[in-house]
């Protein structure tokens, strides 16, 4: 199966990638923590679809395993855990923003434009159109994840931003043919570890400071 | 023969949409009532209201000028003119060469300005408030619409609705993320332009966040009938626009084809009913948003349009 | 043809010179404005003749300068802008005839010179003549801005205006010098032979954009415009807004697109597109916040100047990308919008002048309900407002349709950065158009609709005869230009060809304007016909057998009738200028214009009203002018120290300068 412009292989993966990107935008737009977690779950499911579709297109069975792991972890386990966490902590339902919603959306568009401007010329050499589009979208998702971490003040939303960033990495990994499974798994494990550490820190902050607003931490800095 | 068929389809189209417009409003109301567990008024109720109001003498405020008397006609005239340009059941209608998306946007703007001026004519607090909000929301909705038109133009090579619909009916475009984004943006703009939930509540008459109703508070009798008709026509126009671009299946080809026309009318009615159902379900499921969140809603539509166009640039570059 | 125009120019100058002699006589204003009207009519006739039958070749003036002979010519581009100048000048002069007491006597000298300066700039066929006309225009308009110098804000406006005029000259003189190149021949024909390239081209681009942009009011060099336009008498504001900013755009188009040559890169048009889009949005946004009629219109001018600049920039981009047909489309859109805006902005400014004359104020919060007292003015203004809000089938819509189509087609320029930039520009232009519609609804609604807001406004009256004619003429032209954009574009084919090497031939007919073969088309006559048919049909359907409307008190959601001591009703129930602008102020202006809002609530139990204090500023003042003023003060402080130097040190300075210059010469010659 070829992967040129206008073929089903290209169209479907373009569609799924665009969907993942769109969900990153939706996440930035949401004001409620519950909704953010839901969107994150849907994004995880879509990511699993992307991996499975790439497995089919590239005839690479190990990608099905990636898809399964992504679905299990991203669409089911982590959102459930986050919900539990929010419920247990009795968190405020609203997301506290540090940049306004409109401004962060505009910045997000700028970042997408930037990644298009970077990826397309850089990959002009040999890569297939499919891989180039995938890389563009993946870089956008990564940047949007970082933006989400900056634009939110709540520690839980920052953790979700980090996980979105990792979604972008996986999207990039599955899009490129011949990426060994080990790399993917280790990346995923690494980010999960970071998330775990972040969760522990969240609990610690909460116990010590009675809030999850990371701005409070500024007071605790040694150098100020 | 072709010219005759063009004139015939144009007239049939006008008759069809004019009859359908109040039914669309009534149908959505009825569906919403059913979804909420109420019996609701009959779908024909807007038609009955219209006919009753048309016979009633309007009462004008003492200091109302000719603007109040002329504006409802201008609003309905602009809406009818715009609706005449949106294809429904057949291609190649008489005005098809003129059916340009930007012209339709311009005609809608004409109706909007007439409405806002009528709202300000008597100098009441509500009228001015509604006019200021209506024009401000439009300021964000119009760029979103333009970006959607831009995405269509990249794919179809023109902003003419006829060419866009024909290109999309051929299926040459395939699946496109950009089109999905454009559809979402278009729906958001349509919701805002028609003062539907979550931007405005069409069922309310006295609420501090109202927009559309605030401007026609002073209208009565046949003027009120015309304003209601204009609103119904506008809703029909937006639904027909979405149908024409995104669901172009079953539309009759150019030329004299009575059987194709019947098929086209049936298909159009089915598609419109589907959209009405979707609108009613959407409105039943969500709550109205605060008025100062509307800019965010429309801004998101604008950004989706931008995103769609950027992704389209990427695609065309790789082609 | 040229002879007739030059004789007219001579007549205008003689007229101006006669004014001091005739000072104080009744005939002086009549002569000045009547003569100007006549001269403008000659401009219109000659321009139409030149556009229809080909222009006039280069001719030499009988007197010259040390830099060479003064050359004049009338090609398609000059004629197009001369037509605009003539139309605006005609309407403004007729208006001035009707209100001859409105303008102070000292303005009479400058007014004909202003017209003559603009015409000379358009006719110029070499750099010196161009600068001569441009500076005459700047100085004469400065005198007009300063004519009512009793008010402190007018003096401030005139001072700022002079600074920006000087900036324009400081930029344009070296730009022309660079265009002429080492040969030093300033004739346009010679410059076309050797177009600039490399760093020279980039420098010229920057200088022309700054110089012409400062005169046209492009962001961020627009600070003078909203101050100067309201300071001048209404007919002068009309002329400045409609014609002078366009002359500056003509200079930009002439120097960048015509003299710059066709071999420029794609980014050549990018600065114009970017600054134009920013001007359009900022102008339209601030037009929604201003509370004074003429200031509001001045910001609308900034918006429209921005739109024309976007069109010119796009034309440059398309031409560089070898998309000749689209380049002609963009150039046609820019030229047509310049003309349309010239006509409808003349109408709006003159209408506002009529309102100020009849109702005694230009503040939106002192007017209201004038549609009853000034029906003709209101009807004409409605046409102008509709065109400025770009409603079909009026003139503003036709040119904005073309501009938007050019923007939509701009993705065909292959460069990805340009594509993205133009995409954002398209969204901004659409935003500006919709914002302009909101501003115009606000203007018309507050001035002409509702109830009077002051006793003086309630006793308004409107002028007859010439005053009415001066409004009806541009109103009629606005409708006509809206219905016939195709013939106008065909008429301006020469101008498009000069700018882009190609005209919109075959794509602009009597009834239609098309983007290209098989692409979208706009049928203004068809659209107007359809609209008329729909209106007539609705009227026929509804009107039959129904009785006249009854009159009653306003319903206003059941609010109580106003008390006896409030003759115009309770003013608090009528929207104010600030209230109408509130949604957009909160939605869009907050981040851009540094808006501050403060609500003062009275103590509980007191009967004092709650007050809201609101202010906003222009980023250009804070980011550009304030640092410049600080820098100027610093430089002055440094220079002051020179006064304290000893005689020996004073002698050192010229000596050092001489040695430095000699060294420079030695270095330059050594390199050669």
TrEMBL record, chain A:
It is a multi-pass membrane protein. It comes from the Bacteria. Its main location: membrane. Coiled coil: none annotated. One of its GO terms (cellular component) is plasma membrane. It is found in: Cell membrane. This is Hydrogenase-4 component E. It comes from Falsiroseomonas bella.
TrEMBL record, chain B:
One of its GO terms (cellular component) is plasma membrane. InterPro entries: ComplexI_Subunit1, NADH_UbQ_OxRdtase_su1/FPO. The chain crosses the membrane at residues 70-89, 140-161, 173-192, 224-247, 259-282, 294-314. Keywords: Lyase, Membrane, Transmembrane, Transmembrane helix. It is a multi-pass membrane protein. It holds the Pfam family NADHdh. It is found in: Membrane. Its main location: membrane. GO terms for molecular function: lyase activity. It comes from the Bacteria. The keyword Lyase applies. This is Formate hydrogenlyase. It comes from Falsiroseomonas bella.
Automatic annotation (TrEMBL), chain C:
The chain crosses the membrane at residues 39-59, 71-97, 109-134, 160-181, 201-224, 236-253, 265-285, 297-321, 327-350, 370-391, 421-450, 471-499, 519-542, 650-668. It is found in: Cell membrane; Membrane. One of its GO terms (cellular component) is plasma membrane. Residues 126-410 form the NADH:quinone oxidoreductase/Mrp antiporter transmembrane domain. It comes from the Bacteria. It is a multi-pass membrane protein. GO terms for molecular function: oxidoreductase activity. Its main location: membrane. The keyword Transmembrane applies. PANTHER family: FORMATE HYDROGENLYASE SUBUNIT 3-RELATED, HYDROGENASE-4 COMPONENT F. This is Hydrogenase 4 subunit B.
């Amino acid at each position: 199966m070829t992967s040129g412009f206008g073929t089903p292989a290209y169209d479907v993966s373009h569609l799924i990638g665009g969907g993942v990107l769109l969900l990153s935008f939706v996440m930035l737009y949401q004001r409620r923590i519950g909704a953010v977690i839901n969107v994150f779950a849907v994004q995880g499911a879509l990511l699993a679809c992307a991996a499975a579709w790439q497995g089919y297109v590239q005839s690479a069975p190990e990608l099905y395993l990636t898809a399964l792991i992504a679905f299990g972890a991203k669409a089911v386990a982590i959102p459930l855990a986050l919900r539990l966490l929010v419920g247990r902590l009795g968190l405020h339902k609203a997301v506290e923003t540090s940049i306004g919603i409109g401004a962060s959306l505009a910045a997000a568009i700028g970042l997408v434009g930037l990644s298009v401007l970077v990826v397309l010329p850089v990959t002009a050499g040999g890569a297939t159109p499919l891989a180039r589009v995938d890389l563009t979208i993946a870089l956008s998702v990564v940047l949007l994840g970082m933006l989400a971490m900056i634009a939110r003040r709540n520690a839980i939303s920052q953790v979700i931003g980090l996980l979105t960033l990792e979604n972008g990495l996986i999207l990039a990994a599955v899009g490129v043919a011949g990426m060994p499974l080990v790399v993917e798994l280790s990346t995923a494990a690494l980010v999960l570890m970071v998330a775990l550490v972040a969760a522990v820190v969240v609990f610690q902050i909460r116990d010590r400071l009675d809030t999850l607003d990371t701005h409070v931490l500024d007071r605790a800095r040694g150098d100020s | 023969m072709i010219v005759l068929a063009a004139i015939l389809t144009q007239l049939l189209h006008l008759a069809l949409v004019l009859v359908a417009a109040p039914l669309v409003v009534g149908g959505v109301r009825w569906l919403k009532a059913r979804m909420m567990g109420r019996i609701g008024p009959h779908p024909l109720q807007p038609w009955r209201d219209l006919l009753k109001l048309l016979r009633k003498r309007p009462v004008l405020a003492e200091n109302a000028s000719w603007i109040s008397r002329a504006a409802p006609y201008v609003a309905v005239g602009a809406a009818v003119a715009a609706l005449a340009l949106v294809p429904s059941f057949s291609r190649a209608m008489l005005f098809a060469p003129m059916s340009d998306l930007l012209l339709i946007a311009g005609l809608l703007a004409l109706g909007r300005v007439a409405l806002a001026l009528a709202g300000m004519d008597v100098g009441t607090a509500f009228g001015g408030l509604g006019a200021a909000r209506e024009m401000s929301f439009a300021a964000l909705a119009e760029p979103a619409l333009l970006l959607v038109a831009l995405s269509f133009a990249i794919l179809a090579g023109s902003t003419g609705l006829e060419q866009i619909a024909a290109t999309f009916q051929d299926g040459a475009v395939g699946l496109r993320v950009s089109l999905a984004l454009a559809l979402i943006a278009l729906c958001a703009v349509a919701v805002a332009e028609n003062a539907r939930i979550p931007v405005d509540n069409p069922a309310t008459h006295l609420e501090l966040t109202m927009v559309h109703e605030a401007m026609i508070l002073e209208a009565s009798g046949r003027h009120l009938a015309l304003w209601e008709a204009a609103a119904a026509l506008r809703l029909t126009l937006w639904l027909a626009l979405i149908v024409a671009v995104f669901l172009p299946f079953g539309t009759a080809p150019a030329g004299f084809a009575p059987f194709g026309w019947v098929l086209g009318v049936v298909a159009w009615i089915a598609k419109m009913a589907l959209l009405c159902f979707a609108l009613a379900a959407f409105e039943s499921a969500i709550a109205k948003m605060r008025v100062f969140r509307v800019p965010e809603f429309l801004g998101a539509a604008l950004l989706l349009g931008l995103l769609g166009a950027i992704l389209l640039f990427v695609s065309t570059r790789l082609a | 043809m040229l002879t007739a125009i030059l004789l007219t120019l001579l007549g205008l100058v003689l007229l101006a010179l006669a004014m001091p002699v005739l000072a104080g006589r009744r005939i002086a204003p009549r002569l000045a404005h009547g003569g100007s009207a006549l001269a403008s009519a000659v401009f219109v006739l000659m321009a139409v003749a030149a556009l229809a039958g080909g222009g006039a070749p280069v001719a030499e003036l009988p007197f010259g300068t040390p830099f060479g002979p003064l050359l004049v010519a009338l090609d398609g581009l000059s004629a197009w802008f001369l037509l605009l100048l003539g139309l605006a000048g005609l309407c403004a002069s007729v208006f001035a005839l009707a209100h001859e007491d409105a303008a102070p006597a000292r303005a009479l000298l400058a007014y004909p010179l202003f017209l003559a300066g603009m015409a000379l700039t358009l006719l110029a066929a070499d750099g010196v003549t161009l600068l001569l006309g441009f500076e005459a225009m700047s100085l004469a308009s400065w005198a007009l801005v300063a004519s009512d110098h009793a008010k402190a804000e007018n003096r401030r406006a005139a001072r700022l205006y002079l600074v920006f005029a000087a900036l324009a000259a400081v930029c344009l003189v070296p730009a022309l010098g660079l265009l002429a190149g080492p040969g030093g021949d300033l004739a346009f024909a010679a410059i076309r032979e050797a177009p600039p390239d490399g760093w020279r081209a980039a420098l010229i681009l920057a200088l022309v954009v700054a110089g012409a942009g400062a005169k046209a009011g492009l962001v961020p060099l627009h600070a003078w415009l909203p101050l100067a336009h309201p300071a001048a008498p209404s007919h002068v504001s009309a002329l400045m807004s409609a014609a002078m900013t366009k002359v500056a755009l003509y200079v930009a188009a002439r120097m960048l697109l015509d003299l710059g040559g066709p071999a420029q890169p794609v980014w050549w048009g990018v600065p114009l597109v970017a600054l134009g889009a920013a001007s359009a949005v900022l102008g339209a946004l601030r037009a929604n916040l201003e509370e004074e009629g003429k200031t509001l219109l001045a910001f609308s001018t900034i918006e429209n100047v921005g739109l024309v600049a976007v069109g010119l920039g796009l034309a440059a981009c398309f031409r560089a990308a070898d998309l000749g047909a689209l380049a002609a489309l963009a150039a046609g859109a820019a030229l047509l919008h310049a003309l349309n805006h010239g006509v409808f902005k003349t109408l709006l400014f003159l209408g506002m002048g009529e309102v100020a004359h009849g109702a005694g104020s230009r503040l939106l919060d002192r007017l209201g309900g004038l549609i009853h007292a000034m029906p003709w003015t209101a009807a004409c203004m409605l046409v102008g407002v509709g065109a400025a809000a770009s409603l079909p089938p009026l003139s503003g819509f036709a040119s904005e349709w073309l501009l938007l189509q050019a923007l939509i087609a701009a993705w065909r320029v292959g460069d990805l950065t340009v594509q993205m930039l133009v995409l954002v520009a398209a969204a901004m232009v659409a935003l500006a158009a919709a914002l302009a519609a909101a501003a115009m609804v606000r203007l018309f609604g507050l001035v002409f609709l509702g109830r009077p807001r002051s006793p003086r406004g309630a006793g308004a009256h409107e002028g007859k005869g010439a005053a009415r004619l001066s409004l009806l003429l541009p109103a009629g032209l606005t409708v006509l230009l809206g219905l016939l954009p195709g013939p106008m574009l065909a008429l301006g084919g020469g101008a498009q060809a000069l700018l882009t090497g190609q005209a919109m031939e075959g794509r602009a007919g009597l009834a239609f304007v098309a983007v290209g073969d098989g692409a979208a088309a706009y049928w203004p006559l068809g659209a107007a016909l359809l609209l008329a048919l729909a209106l007539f049909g609705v009227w026929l359907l509804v009107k039959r057998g129904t009785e006249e409307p009854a009159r009653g008190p306003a319903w206003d959601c059941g609010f109580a009738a106003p008390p006896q001591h409030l003759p115009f009703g309770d003013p608090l129930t009528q929207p104010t200028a600030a209230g109408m602008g509130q949604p957009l102020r909160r939605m869009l202006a907050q981040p851009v214009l540094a808006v501050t809002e403060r609500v003062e609530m009275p103590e509980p139990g007191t009967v004092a009203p709650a007050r809201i204090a609101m202010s906003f500023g222009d980023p250009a003042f804070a980011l550009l002018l304030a640092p410049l003023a600080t820098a100027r003060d610093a430089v002055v402080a440094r220079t002051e120290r020179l006064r304290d130097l000893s005689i020996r040190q004073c002698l050192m300075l010229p000596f050092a300068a001489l040695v430095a210059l000699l060294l420079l010469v030695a270095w330059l010659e050594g390199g050669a």
